[in-house]
Every structure is written in C-alpha cells, then in structure tokens.
Design goal:
Strand content: 15-25%
Number of helices: 14
Largest sheet: 8 strands, mixed
Helix content: 40-55%
Number of strands: 12
Oligomer: single chain
Structural class: alpha/beta
Radius of gyration: 20 Å
Strand order of the largest sheet: 5-2-1-6-7-10-11-12
Order of helices and strands: EHEEEHEHEHEEEHEHEHEHHHHHHH
Distance between the termini: 54 Å
C-alpha cells in the first residue's frame, strides 16, 4: 500500500536503548534508499546526562549512542529527539522499541498527537495480564492509540546485528500488502526479514522465549552440559507452542520455524541478557538463598546490564499470574518451575525436576 500521492512515510523510533539504536541504524539505511520514506528518522531519547552532556545532544553531534551502542554510527539522517511529542509529530510509521512496562504510559502521552492513518510496529517482548487474559504489547498500542500495530521478532542479539552479522527476523502483520512496507523499512543484506499474517503467534514466541532463557541460564549457572540445555530448550519450545494454542487456538506450526520461533529461542538461550543474568542469579542464590527473588534480579540487572532492562523475570511473573488464574499451572510445569525458582521459592537445582510440578 503506497503512501498517498505526493507524501512519504515518516518514521519515528520510540526508544533509544541498545536494540532501539540498532533499529534506528537499519531504518535510516533504508529510508534514504527507498522513495516511499522520508529520509529523516527521528529517535525518541529518554534524556540522560553523559559526562555532563545531554545524551540526545551527544548522539546528534557524534552520530553515535555512546551509552547504549558505543562505536556504531547510526547514520547522518538519524535525529535524536528528547521530546516524545516532537519525535512522533507527523510520523506515519511508529516503531516501538522500549521496555514493555513503559509502553502504555508513552502511548497515553501520544494520544491526539499522531496522524489517524499512522501505523505502528512493536519490537517489544512482553505482555500485561488482565482479568480477561494476556494483553500483548501490540494490543496495548492498538487500544490506547487506535492504530493498527504489527510486530517484528527474531533471533536478534542487538550488538551482533549492529556489527552487521547475518541474521533474520519475522514481521507479523495482518495486512499482507502493508507487511511489505515494513519489510522495505527493515530488510537489508545482513538483516533479512520475512513476513507472516500471524501477529499473535509471532509476538507470543518473542515474549515467552525470555522465560525459557531464564531456565537456560539456570542450567549454565549449575554448570550442567549441552544435553541438559538442549532438553530444557525443547521443553520450553513445547510449552510455548501449547500456550499459543490454548490462548489463540489458530496458531500455525509454521510460526515456530520462523526466526521469531526456534531461532530466537536458540540465540536467547545462548547469547541473551536473560540467560546472562539468570546464570549469575544461581551463583548469588548459592551464597545466600534467603536473598532470592525480585530484589536479587533488580540488583543483578543494575550490576550486569549497564542501564538495559531485564524482561524475562517480569514476563515470568505475568505469565504465572495468567497460569494461576486459568488453573493451568499443572499443564505448564516447566514455566511454573522457572517461576518458583525465579521468585526464590525453589532452589535452581530443581530446574531439571520440572515434571514434579505437574504432579505436586
């Protein structure tokens, strides 16, 4: 679907962390090479001081996000904007790349300040739990802003993508024609993008695999080998598939063989921040079991992630709330075991005893 005659899509990136900066780099590369886009890519920056200078000013001067993506040029057409409403002004393609817990508040600020014909795409992995069930990030954006929201998920460790190492991603977009607009915005020789109409399946895979990654990190922290890790990942994928079917019913198995499925699960369980922090969690838990739980995750997040946010623990808490509300804990013993370990109720050594959860 081309933009109306004489107009071009204007791109705004909402978020400027590690992944948000990489996405801005990719989008900026493509907007100057494709006539359907305005060249400029505005990137909303949560303002911080870096050695006495505003981060947005440093980015605009150096062309580099020195805090979250040091050493990588974003592109001369990326403009860092600390004012959210200025960043999204007249934007017709809104790209959301912030921690999921901030999405609703940001969207509320944007109400009435974006064009009615704007489209959104979420690269955010997370969900909120409501009485009626899970509310995926794309649904939150749609409900608050009244725009159609697609998703992009995949096996994408940000720093590797920034180095232009080959990888893939999946766009979930209900409108097959418009999906090609997002493909044009993101697809490059090293970042290859495919599309599927199954938005919920793509998004649930991207979200729940962070919980599986906690389990993989526990395995690493316990110094167990690759057989155990492979088994944990397989069980995690099986419960991801079962959850998708219970919640949405019509999820095709094809989704799990896209980048958003098994590929994302593999890379997250070997290279992601959730795995890294949960491995460290095991060591700290051994030193002081009474300190396990939310406060330890917060402490490790600050120590290990340099300002980035950890999604896996929060997603596990939200997911378990859903499982308990639906009386599904025994149907998902692996997810339940991960949650019991993560909340300090079980020793991490129990990660391989998850089958006991279905019987206890």
């Amino acid at each position: 679907e081309p933009p109306s005659s004489g107009t071009k899509y204007r791109v705004a990136i909402i978020g400027s962390g590690n992944w948000g900066s990489v996405v801005a780099k990719i989008a900026a590369y493509n907007t100057v090479r494709n006539s359907i886009f305005e060249d400029e890519v505005r990137m909303w920056v949560f303002e911080e001081l870096i050695e006495g200078q505003k981060l947005s000013e440093v980015i605009n001067t150096k062309g580099e996000n020195v805090k979250y993506l040091p050493g990588v040029q974003l592109g001369a057409n990326v403009k860092a904007v600390p004012d959210l409403l200025e960043a999204v002004n007249l934007a017709t393609l809104l790209v959301f790349v912030t921690p999921h817990q901030f999405v609703k508040g940001l969207c509320k600020q944007m109400i009435g300040n974006i064009p009615k014909h704007a489209r959104a795409i979420s690269l955010i992995k997370g969900m909120d739990i409501t009485v009626s069930g899970p509310c995926m990030v794309s649904e939150t954006i749609e409900e608050v802003l009244g725009v159609e929201c697609s998703v992009l998920m995949g096996a994408n460790v940000a720093n590797d993508v920034a180095k232009e190492e080959f990888c893939e991603a999946t766009v979930g977009c209900a409108d097959a024609n418009f999906a090609q607009t997002f493909v044009k915005l993101f697809d490059t020789s090293y970042f290859q993008v495919a599309s599927t109409p199954n938005v919920k399946g793509v998004e649930l895979c991207g979200t729940v695999k962070n919980v599986v990654a906690l389990g993989a990190g526990f395995v690493d922290g316990l110094k167990l080998g690759s057989n155990t890790k492979a088994a944990i990942m397989r069980v995690g994928l099986e419960e991801m598939r079962k959850l998708s079917r219970k919640l949405f019913g019509d999820i095709s198995d094809d989704v799990y063989f896209q980048s958003c499925g098994v590929a994302d699960l593999i890379t997250t369980c070997y290279g992601g921040r959730n795995r890294k922090v949960s491995e460290a969690y095991v060591g700290k838990y051994k030193e002081s079991p009474s300190e396990g739980g939310a406060s330890l995750w917060e402490k490790l997040e600050k120590e290990l992630l340099g300002g980035q946010k950890l999604q896996g623990f929060l997603t596990s808490v939200d997911l378990q709330e859903l499982l308990v509300a639906r009386h599904w804990e025994h149907d998902f013993p692996f997810f339940t075991t991960i949650n019991l370990i993560a909340t300090g109720k079980l020793d991490p050594i129990n990660i391989t005893s998850y089958r006991g959860c279905s019987r206890s």
